[in-house]
């Protein structure tokens, strides 16, 4: 499938840890720019691109409990 993306809202009473987004172990910036990830102030967005059947992509990011 192509055009896949992950969007995850940051829960109430937590704070996103700046610079913590990774896709497949590769760091992503928090800005909406040329890499796959961004943080818009309320949620993390990561474009996965094309993922063939049986393939996986791993997205990580961190939050802290307020």
Name the descriptors.
mainly beta, 66 residues, 0% helix, three-stranded antiparallel beta sheet
Ordered list of secondary-structure elements with their pairings:
Blueprint: E1 4-9, E2 14-16, E3 22-23, E4 26-27, E5 37-39, E6 43-49, E7 59-60, E8 63-65
Antiparallel strand pairs: 1-6, 2-8, 3-4, 3-7, 5-6
Describe this structure in words.
- The chain has 66 residues and is an all-beta fold.
- The chain has one domain (4-65).
- The chain has strands at residues 4-9, 14-16, 22-23, 26-27, 37-39, 43-49, 59-60, 63-65.
- Strands 1-6-5 form a 3-stranded antiparallel β-sheet, with no helix packed on it. The protein has a 3-stranded antiparallel β-sheet with strand order 4-3-7, with no helix packed on it.
- The model has no long low-confidence stretch (mean pLDDT 96).
Tally the helices: what do you get?
0
- Euclidean distance between termini CA atoms: 37 Å
Shape: elongated
Class derived from helix and strand content: mainly beta
Element string (H = helix, E = strand): EEEEEEEE
Q: Describe the largest sheet.
A: 3 strands, antiparallel
Tell me, rounded to a whole number, the average pLDDT.
96
Q: Give the neighbour order of strands across the main sheet.
A: 1-6-5
- The percent range for strand residues is 35-45%
What share of residues is helical? under 10%
**Count of the domains:** 1
- Low-pLDDT stretches: none
Number of β-strand runs = 8
| Rg for CA atoms | 12 Å
How would you summarize this macromolecular structure in one to three sentences?
The protein has strands at residues 4-9, 14-16, 22-23, 26-27, 37-39, 43-49, 59-60, 63-65.
């Amino acid at each position: 499938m192509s055009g896949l993306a992950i969007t995850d809202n940051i829960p109430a009473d937590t704070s996103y840890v700046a610079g913590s987004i990774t896709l497949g172990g590769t760091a992503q910036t928090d800005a909406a720019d040329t890499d796959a990830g961004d943080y818009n102030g309320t949620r993390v967005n990561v474009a996965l691109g094309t993922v063939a059947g049986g393939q996986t992509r791993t997205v990580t990011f961190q939050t802290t409990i307020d």
